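Risk mitigation, structural track. In case the binding assays with uridine-5'-diphosphate-glucuronic acid fail to produce interpretable data, a predicted complex structure has been prepared as a fallback.
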Amino acid sequence: MNLTTPTISVIGTGYLGATHAACLAELGFRVVGVDRDRDKIARLAAGEAPFSEPGLDDLLRRHTASGRLRFTTAIRVAAEHADVHFLCVGTPQSAAGPEADLAGLWAAVRDLGRHLTRDCLVVGKSTVPVGTAAAMAAELGRIVPPRISANVAWNPEFLREGHGVQDTLHPDRLVFGVDSPSAELTLRLLYERPIAAGVPVHVTDLATAELAKSAANGFLATKVSFVNAMAEISERAGADVVALADILGDDPRIGRSFLDAGIGFGGGCLPKDIRALAARAAALGASSAPALLHAVDEANARARSRVADLALELCPGAGARVAVLGAAFKPRSDDVRDSPALDIARRVHRAGAEVRVYDPEASLNARAVAPELTYVASLETALRGAELVLHLTEWPEFAAMDPRWAARLVRWPVIIDGRNRIDSGRWAAAGWTVHSVGRPRRGAPARALVADPAG
Ligand SMILES: NC(=O)C1=CN([C@@H]2O[C@H](COP(=O)(O)OP(=O)(O)OC[C@H]3O[C@@H](n4cnc5c(N)ncnc54)[C@H](O)[C@@H]3O)[C@@H](O)[C@H]2O)C=CC1
Ligand SMILES: O=C(O)[C@H]1O[C@H](OP(=O)(O)OP(=O)(O)OC[C@H]2O[C@@H](n3ccc(=O)[nH]c3=O)[C@H](O)[C@@H]2O)[C@H](O)[C@@H](O)[C@@H]1O
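Fallback model:
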């Protein structure tokens, strides 16, 4: 292995892998990205990100042009040319149950192992059930050709979509799960720049590294469900969950982040990761984590249902026109995997409303999974004639909207702010009825079909 300037492969070039590959090229390494999805590889090879991630297109363009970054569908190319292989393949929830589907990961490991022609370090980055790294090391030991050594390390990733490039180049911390000094040395070399900038490094064993990632997502999900549980109490007691979160957040032991109440968490990671963690814990005979995480999952489902139910309550009869603002699972992303916004839009549509969805970036992806909804190209078209507005993904342009302008477009000025991001006082002053999550209603009572006790 070339330890001065190792060559790198990144296997699986989705949200994580494409970002990681481009950032390693930015750090000065020669990188080959591998994926079995031909279309994705063609776009990446042309220097174009197959999804929206700020700053990624620029890195891809520059480094594919310089030749430092290449893409291929042939894992053999990676096996023959790289010293370090990062595994970034998808680990989705399996179709049958709550556990992670590791078929893609095992296929990649076996494919890589069989084609190896040189010693290497195989570094897992995908989020996996604890114990996977050890099983992978054993499998590689069985399948790599004689006299070739393939060491295994685990280097979990904590990047957030929409901040992927920034989070990769300037991470909060680095975790190196290793079982040999040489693996640690190689990882230190790869991350020399962030380490020199003072990023803390946690060197640990393989199992702790794998579990740390699942635990981090489990904890973030727990914070969101906790605050959503407080939102439900706040609504019933006449309290304000935003003020409550600010009070909690001033305690440095708690912290303000991930205490934004609303329609709950979604995306390709938090939901499937808490289920996979619960399933793995149960398989290991640890019973506390499944109980806790199931409650988190249920509270998250309830956060969505509460807003969907309120929307139906406020709809003025069958065929009501509903404007849905947002389809992505969070702003600055075109990802609609397990999106709470899209889920609510579909429920309202199924109940008979005429739903028009506007999202600045995610409409194409949303249409692929929810073709029954109508997608419009502008905020104005979504709002025109609407009898109810649902604010479900907190894109900055929605919070920045002039409520007087919006009031002139709609039929009824009634909005449910599922993300607590619009200035409810300003909207109420412009004639709107504003329903938020865990906050008192602002403005006149909407013409609800059901009597409003607060009205
Ligand atoms: N999306 C994110 O922000 C983050 C994701 N993760 C984890 O990273 C992993 C990947 O997640 P995403 O990038 O979001 O998924 P993704 O679905 O966007 O990408 C996964 C890619 O792996 C490819 N793939 C699957 N099996 C393969 C094989 N055998 N050979 C070659 N390519 C293969 C797929 O074609 C796909 O392009 C997951 O374990 C996820 O939990 C971790 C941190 C952040
Ligand atoms: O493993 C992963 O893939 C990643 O999962 C999450 O990142 P991401 O899914 O990109 O999005 P987040 O910013 O964490 O948001 C997740 C969901 O929680 C929701 N959320 C977040 C914060 C909050 O206070 N309230 C809330 O409802 C968001 O709207 C979103 O639907 C983690 O934050 C990353 O550290 C991790 O690497």
